[in-house]
Write a structure and sequence with these properties.
Elements lengths: L6 E6 L2 E6 L4 H7 L10 E3 L4 E3 L8 E4 L4 E4 L10 E3 L3 H16 L15 H8 L23 E3 L9 H9 L6 E3 L6 E3 L16 H5 L5 E3 L3 H8 L5 E6 L20 H11 L3 E4 H21 L6 E2 L4 H10 L13 H9 L2 H6 L6 E7 L3 H6 L5 E2 L2 E2 L3 E4 H10 L21 H4 L6 H15 L17 E8 L2 E9 L1 H13 L6 E5 L18 H17 L9 H11 L5 H7 L10
Parallel strand pairs: 1-7, 12-13, 12-15, 14-21, 15-18, 20-21
Antiparallel strand pairs: 1-2, 3-4, 5-6, 5-7, 8-11, 9-10, 16-17, 19-20
Length: 584
């Protein structure tokens, strides 16, 4: 047998160094501070996912030991190996790979949704490619816009398979796979079905890692502009918690910069008639959900109660675990609650015809677009939410309107549907919903003031975390999870009867909404997600009121309009139902 090495010595560009056994040439180059361009490579160690399919050949380097070009992202280091990254042979090899990719790519960069934020475009520019020498037949696949959440354009696909890594390894949904071979190859769904006919949850994590616009959010922006430009329409908007700690990245701010005041001011400049806070809906969700949890706990109802604010997670359980649909909370998401109240309570209070109101939601999530279209999320003939735009789409609208975001004075939410507590801020990160629920449930049960509402045991970025809290001498077992592969673990344990959990929160995206598919692209940088997360905890800590039931506007809402918590009118407007949706 050959000698086993814990580390190996290699030489890159005449720099000799020791690297861990099993490392790739790309890993070694990074250790040496040498840049090698990549396209298909995706290294998400924090999510236990890595894509090193070596399909694009953009990371070619010269292996002097063998005298051949090798893809650095997949070539495992060998002791004594000599690598050159900048020889004429290596540079020309990478350039040829790029030229071949570009020869089969649509030439519509100026109108593409990822213009100036496209990895292929950036690499082409860095390689100074000004001409495409290879001309011939190009792919011509149909574009799929069936889902209302994600547009899949195979003609822009570079076969990097990053989307497959996210769909298969991180989310375990397994909708995407390579189809056919040779020139006709593409990444698609089984039997070329539309996304709407598959078990896609619309989480958007494929969108977040796609280097081009082969996968992108379904645009609602044109419809929003039409409404804003129609003086006969009353158009209102709401902003999710995670948006305010991420949108600044589109205007040069550091990740985690809290931009709430400027964001509100920008929305007013765009022409919205009312600017509401989704956090108001989050507080309302907690009041209803804590009540629902205690009712189940005290009356032998189905446990564990699963929070249901994440639409991708709701799609997942409806499709994969329909036998467990009695477990999720019946509470609507905060987005839908604010939308429902805008066309009932707000309309009545302000004297506006509900039929004339259109609700726009700014969300960190592409699945929220599909959620807004659910038949269950309507009151009469009025949908709770009419249009959903992502953080990225709102940033583009602000730029389109030539609004100087950085120099905007801070503004405030409308007095109605605008107040929020610290508890609602942490909805945007994994564990926040269940922590907020525990704060309110504790005070409802004990009648005592919870002095320190920070449940550190359920915070941080682990994919799956469990903890326990005590309510009046009773131990409540809690679990929080992000990524659907971890949701699967929890649901399998419930299905098998091995679970002793009472309360579960699941978010489909890494880190929760802070890592949503509609957020500014974080390019796999976990530090970006951590900064966004910490900003939400800062908003919580700095709020005078940190428990949802302390929200004065929520109290007024029940007194003047809803009646009892969990009562008939609250159920009509704030609760929903789920149904089996079996798809491939």
């Amino acid at each position: 047998m050959g000698k086993e090495y814990s580390s190996v010595r290699i030489t890159i560009n005449n720099i000799t160094l020791e690297v861990d056994h099993g490392s790739t040439v790309l890993d070694a180059a990074k250790q040496a501070g040498i840049n090698i361009p990549t396209l298909c490579h995706l290294d998400l160690h924090d999510l236990d996912a890595i894509n090193q399919s070596a399909n694009c050949r953009v990371c070619l380097v010269e292996n002097e030991t063998r005298g051949t070009l090798v893809p650095s992202c997949a070539e495992i280091v060998q002791d004594g190996m000599r690598i050159q990254t900048d020889t004429k042979k290596a540079v020309q090899g990478r350039r040829t790979s790029m030229e071949l990719l570009l020869s089969n790519h649509p030439k519509e960069c100026l109108t593409c949704v990822k213009n100036l934020d496209c990895d292929l475009q950036e690499l082409s520019n860095s390689m100074n490619i000004k001409d495409i020498p290879y001309q011939g037949e190009m792919m011509n696949h149909p574009v799929d816009d069936s889902s209302g959440a994600i547009i899949k354009d195979p003609n822009k696909c570079v076969m990097c398979r990053r989307c497959m890594t996210m769909c298969d390894e991180v989310q375990t949904v397994g909708v995407l796979s390579p189809l056919k071979r040779g020139f006709d190859v593409s990444v698609g769904t089984a039997f070329h079905l539309d996304l709407s006919e598959t078990s896609c949850t619309y989480c958007g994590q494929c969108v977040s890692v796609c280097p081009t616009a082969a996968l992108a959010e379904h645009p609602h922006v044109p419809n929003v502009w039409r409404r804003l430009n129609n003086p006969n329409r009353h158009t209102v908007v709401q902003i999710a918690p995670a948006v305010r700690v991420a949108i600044g990245e589109m205007f040069g701010y550091e990740a985690g910069e809290i931009s709430t005041g400027k964001l509100i001011a920008a929305l007013r400049r765009l022409g919205f008639d009312g600017v509401f806070d989704t956090k108001f809906g989050a507080d309302l969700t907690i009041v209803e959900e804590a009540n629902e949890f205690l009712e189940r706990l005290n009356n032998d109802g189905p446990l564990p109660l699963l929070t249901s604010c994440c639409p991708a997670w709701v799609n997942f359980i409806e499709q994969k675990y329909p036998d467990l649909l009695d477990i999720p909370s019946s509470c609507k998401s905060p987005q839908s609650m604010v939308g429902s109240l805008s066309k009932t309570y707000y309309a009545k209070t302000m004297g506006v015809d509900p039929q004339n109101i259109r609700m726009v939601a700014v969300m960190p999530c592409v699945a929220k677009k599909a959620e807004a279209a659910r038949d269950e999320l309507a009151y009469g003939e009025q949908r709770d939410v009419d249009y959903v735009i992502t953080t990225r789409e709102l940033g583009a609208m602000i730029k389109e309107a030539a609004i100087d975001f950085n120099n905007l004075p801070d503004d405030s939410f409308d007095d109605i549907l605008g107040e929020s507590t610290g508890a609602s801020s942490i909805f945007g990160t994994t564990g926040g919903v269940v922590e907020a629920t525990a704060r309110t449930a504790y005070e409802n049960v004990t009648g005592k003031t919870l002095e320190n509402g920070e449940f550190e045991t359920i915070r941080w970025m682990e994919g799956l975390r469990k903890a326990s809290v005590t309510l009046n001498g009773r131990t409540i077992n809690i679990a929080v999870a992000h990524e659907l592969k971890n949701a699967r673990k929890l649901l399998d344990s419930i299905r098998s009867g091995d679970s002793d959990l009472d309360l579960i929160e699941i978010m489909a995206c890494p880190g929760g909404c802070i890592g949503g598919g509609g957020q500014p692209f974080h390019h796999g940088d976990i530090n970006v997600l951590n900064k966004r997360r910490e900003a939400l905890y800062t908003l919580d800590k700095n709020n005078v009121r940190r428990k949802s039931h302390e929200n004065e506007q929520v109290k007024t809402l029940y007194q003047k309009f809803l009646g009892d918590i969990g009562g008939q009118k609250a159920h009509e407007l704030l609760h929903t139902s789920y149904s089996k949706k079996l798809r491939i």
